[in-house]
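Sample intake sheet
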Amino acid sequence: NVRIDSPLLDSVLGVYYLIPPLIVIICMIIQIKYLRRNMTTAIDQVSTHASKTIFLVSTLFFTCHLAYVILVLYWFTKNPTIMQGAHTAAFFVNTGEYMGLCEFLLPLFYAFVYPIILVCRKPTLRKKYFRHLRRLCYRAHPEIEPLLDGHETL
């Protein structure tokens, strides 16, 4: 077993866990500033709409990634003897299951919510998917059709 010194490990972990959300936030700020600076007043509403979408998507990524970073930091601070190898293999398996589950579920959550944000932000897509969902609901429950009449737009 090769032991990694703590400052080196801290640096590697910092790069691995903290750089991606920082890059996303910096890119979000640059994109929003670019949109606001280069758009004319006639297209200001489009610029504002795009800026909000960029903000929502960036915040979603930042939140999902930050949740995992907080879990990792909590795991390391709760178990300071982890680097000395004082824990049993069962400890690592049990804790690794939770971390692996979060590592698996948070990207799935991101992949699930990202298209929902895009669909909800674009009126034509929103109308198309609402009609599709309406047809699916009507097939499953024909009695709700009169309730849905006249409510094709959100």
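Comment: The mean pLDDT is 75. The chain has five helices and no strands.
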